[in-house]
Amino acid sequence: MKFNSKYLPIIIGATFALGIVSGSLMNAPVDDQLLAKNYSKTKLNKLIDFINNEYVDSINTDSIVNLTVDNILSKLDPHSVYIPPTEQAEVAESMKGDFVGIGINFYMYKDSVAIIKPIENGPSAKAGIKSGDRILFAGKTKLYGRRLPSDSLFSKLKGIKGSEIELTVFRKSEQKKLKFKVKRDIIPIKSVDASLLLDNKTGYIKINRFAETTFNEFKTGLTRLKQNGIESLIIDLRDNGGGYMEEAIAIADEFLKDKQLIVFTKNKNGTTEKTFATKAGSFETGKVYVLINENSASASEILAGAIQDSDRGTIVGRRSFGKGLVQREMDFNDGSAVRLTVARYYTPTGRSIQKPYKKGNEEYFKESESRVKSGELYAKDSIKVADSLKFKTPKGKIVYGGGGIVPDVFVPIEAEHGNENVAYLMQTGIVGHFVFEELDKNRDAFAGLHFNEFLAKMKSSDAYFKKFRNYILMTGLELKLDKTKALVNRYITAEFARQLYGELYYYDVILKDDAMIKAVLNPKK
To answer: How far is CA 367 from CA 4, 74, 355, in A?
Structure first.
């Protein structure tokens, strides 16, 4: 089936929306007393029992309960959601920030488990497993030729810390089978993708979500950058759908002076809880820039809002998603959970940046489509703001509530990428799969190359661009790439750099021609 490229922004936006559902989470337990107040059967309990005992056909009442819970929550707001047991385990692991496993990045290539790259200093790397290896057996369990779903693969490879698993691997470069004993260990799931120097005085930190370990990861990166003498810091929150608000607050505290307001929440009873900065801030005087886009949400907006409303730094990019609701999680015995909106949060000037949701959840998450149609991704003048929701910062700057954070410096998507459909494509997993398959054909072509030699090799030819263009055509995507050759080559080169040299090298390539980075480093007069 052919795929029409005009729907790419919508599909990518919907994907990010799923992440944004997790929202700004209060990392606090639900009061057990709330659950224990009434042990009498409710109308719903009685109905389920009645169906279970008397209905003419056999039926799975658990599925009815799940549908009922989903339906109830859908009537509340877009961020009060039910999470099934299988999804909840994955979400909880991601927010925890680590898991016990063997430490590999992999994907199902054709009918086998192909290792893209072992995690540096992880169990598999220490055991001698290499990029390009195929895992044939995990213990006695056959993994190839079965097209196993990811959750089944994970269950075979995960286990108890310190437990050992024997992997039978096929190494293509040597054309032979090898066996490795791998001892499982704790594998971090990074929420800070990169912390690096852009020049002698400017640091850069990319945060992909706000998990339990985010502040510690951020502080480690910031400390290292400060040791290198930075005077300015860029915090990249693009496509960050949120997470634990406490982590965003802790990061904001690094930049604000003692007793400055960071955020406040208000619940149904009107009870307000204010959170202020402490004396612990380690970067209270240097310049701060925060990068946001239409997929930056919730905890990302708390951090951006605190910086903007306190006149502490400059917000660069495009209007953020617009989520000003806070959830608390309640777990069930079957491993599922409900996330219920329990409060609204407000930035220091008193604005709620929550966008309207009265037209229902579907319209709420499709709002990103209207931004494309209205032209606001291309021109700041097209951003619609409500004058009735106008606020002033301490220095008199006008900011708006009611629908996301409007940046101080606008960077249109067209200027950033040249062609938004191609740009969306280049940020999907398809580039990683293409690069792996090219390396798999001839990994020796890059053997022994220093990074600068690698860059020179990539710039010397359009061979990989042409191969990628053919690769896209074979998938059925209706995209013309010739007018965006520079963009495509940049992402291809960056992905080669990631798979060959590591994550930081990806950012070393990708940020050099990034429009938002240019807006910070080379502002227009």
So the answer is: 20, 17, 9
E-strand ranges in 359-454 read 390-392, 398-400, 409-410
Is residue 446's pLDDT more than 90?
yes
Please check whether residue 201 is in contact with residue 147, taking contact to mean a CB–CB distance below 8 angstroms.
Answer: no
With beta carbons less than 8 A apart as the criterion, state whether 338 and 84 touch.
no
Distance (Å, rounded) from C-alpha 307 to C-alpha 253?
Answer: 10
Q: Extract the tokens encoding 390.
A: 């106008």
Per-residue pLDDT reduced to its tens digit, 253-307: 999 999 999 999 999 999 999 999 999 999 999 999 999 999 999 999 999 999 9
Residue whose token pair is 């220093």: 450
Q: How far apart are CA 385 and CA 284, in angstroms?
A: 31
Q: Which residues pair with 298 in a beta bridge?
A: none
Q: Which helix (H) or strand (E) holds 501?
A: helix 485-501
* Bigger pLDDT: 384 vs 521: 521
Inter-residue contact 279 to 223 (CB < 8 Å) = no
196 three-class SS: strand
User: HSE on the CB side for 428, CA within 13 Å?
Assistant: 15
Cα separation of 48 and 44, whole Å? 6
Segment holding 65, helix H or strand E: helix 61-74
Query: Which domains are seen in the chain, by residue range?
Result: 98-188 (2.30.42.10), 192-410 (3.90.226.10), 420-521 (no CATH)
CB 26 within 8 A of CB 326: yes
Q: Which residues contact 463 (CB under 8 A, 6 or more apart)?
A: none
Determine the residue type at 37: K
CA–CA separation, 456 and 462 (whole Å)? 12
Query: Torsion angle, CA of 470/472/474/479, rounded to 10 degrees?
Result: -100
In 217-234, which positions are buried (b, 16+ CB within 10 angstroms) versus exposed (e)? bbeebbeebeeeebebbb
The candidate with the shortest Cα–Cα distance to 256, out of 225, 279, 222, is: 279
Looking at residue 170, the DSSP 8-state letter turns out to be E
What is the C-alpha separation between 453 and 450, in angstroms, rounded? 5
Closest CA to 459 of 492, 415, 424, 502: 492
Report d(CA 263, CA 448) in Å as an integer.
Answer: 51
Query: 292 near 316, Cβ under 8 Å?
Result: yes
What are 116-136's pLDDT values in tens digits? 999 988 999 999 999 999 999
Spatial CB neighbours of 116, under 8 Å, sequence gap ≥ 6: 104, 105, 106, 107, 131, 432, 436, 499
